[in-house]
Amino acid sequence: MTPMPYQLDVEKLRALRKRKNLSRTELARLAQTSAHTYSRWENGSIVPFEEEYAQLIQALGCGHDDLLTDQPNPKFWG
Fold first, then answer.
1. 3-state SS of 35-59?
2. pTM of the model
């Protein structure tokens, strides 16, 4: 799996999930991940891999850059 180059904007992620009236568990199912993993994305403790992020934005119906910050992900940049 490929690391994401930038961090998630967890506030935008949480707001979009709530605007879509989805629970964390529901969005995790739609994004084809576990509820535990999704919760860690939303609280900022981990960043999804590119492949996971693609499923997440598809589940939310948003664009690739809509949920990213300009903060680098150390796992990508080393």
1. HHHHHHHHCCCCCCEHHHHHHHHHH
2. 0.93
